[in-house]
Design brief:
The protein is mostly beta strands. The chain has one helix and 16 strands. It has one helix at residues 192-201, and strands at 13-15, 18-20, 28-29, 34-36, 39-41, 49-51, 54-56, 59-61, 69-71, 74-76, 79-81, 89-91, 99-101, 109-111, 129-131, 149-151.
């Protein structure tokens, strides 16, 4: 899926640059835009668009990603502190090795992509949507996933200790690393094959 209506213009490549309080409202970034080791303080990227852009080893603090749309964009080994992702959408993006701290995720939607080794410990992901996302060895310990959708996701090796899964939809996801004794299931939805996996984890034999 590409970013609908995106008209990518200028190309930039920055290293170790600091952006503070800038207005990036509806700014569009493309495959020619790359940022390495940069810091973004209180930048407003509301309704921003990116397609194929890359951010590596960057720090985002207080950045507003409200209603932004991102496709095939890489945010690798980045740190996000106090950022707002209200109604943000990520399609086929990469957040490998990135960490999210004290961020807001209302109405976040993630479709595909690779979020392996992503740090989301304690994140409030209530009603967020993840479909077909690779989340191998991601840290979701103590995460609030009430009413969230995590369908068809690869959660192998993910840390889920203390996660609140009340009414979450987990169908089709790899739950081989989930210890049902260490989470709050609260009516989470799973399919029959997942049920067999969890029963086996509890020491029962399915025949």
């Amino acid at each position: 899926m590409s970013v609908a209506g995106a008209s990518i213009g200028h190309m930039t490549s920055t290293h170790d640059q600091v952006f503070r309080g800038e207005d990036w409202y509806a700014r569009e970034l493309g495959s020619g835009d790359s940022h390495t080791g940069c810091t973004f303080y209180d930048v407003d990227w509301t309704e921003g668009l990116s397609e194929g852009a890359s951010f590596d080893g960057c720090t985002f603090a207080g950045v507003r990603f409200n209603a932004s749309r991102h496709a095939a964009t890489a945010f690798t080994n980045c740190v996000f502190r106090g950022c707002v992702f209200f109604d943000s959408r990520f399609t086929g993006c990469k957040t490998v090795g990135s960490r999210f701290q004290d961020c807001t995720f209302q109405l976040l939607a993630v479709d595909g992509g690779d979020g392996s080794f992503t740090g989301l410990a304690g994140a409030d992901l209530s009603k967020a949507g993840f479909e077909g996302v690779r989340l191998r060895e991601a840290d979701l310990s103590r995460a609030v996933l009430e009413g969230a959708v995590l369908t068809g996701c690869d959660l192998s090796g993910a840390l889920l200790r203390g996660a609140r899964l009340h009414r979450a939809d987990l169908r089709g996801s790899d739950l081989s690393s989930l210890d049902p004794r260490e989470v709050e299931p609260g009516g989470a939805r799973i399919d029959l094959s997942q049920a067999a996996t969890l029963v086996t984890a509890l020491g029962f034999q399915v025949t």
